[in-house]
Write the structure tokens for this entry.
Amino acid sequence: MHFVKGSDKIKITNIYSSNERSDMMKNLLSKVFSKKGKIQIEFCQNNLDRFLNEQTVADYGKFLSNPRIQYKEYECLSECKLCKKTPYAKVNGQIMSGEDSQDLLNQLQDELK
């Protein structure tokens, strides 16, 4: 930061190197022109406990580490009838369910495309 004294005011200006400006511009452009936004996923803890096994837990962990995904796990999402029958998640507010946990994961992965 650089301070410039005026008549009775102090003006603060930012001084950036050309690399910093370039990086800032790239970040701005990638955010503005990104075709693919973030996906918000909500999981029911009871449903996950019911349908996930060791293998699918690892697969879900890899999937959820994607920076485009924001997820939350709730104790209950009040979808009890669905929860007892099939694995499900709320994706951007819409319910998505699968025949099994791998099928649900495949559908969630398709949402990223």
Remarks:
- Residues 18-32 form the longest helix (15 residues).
- The beta strands are 2-5, 10-13, 39-44, 69-74, 88-91, 94-97.
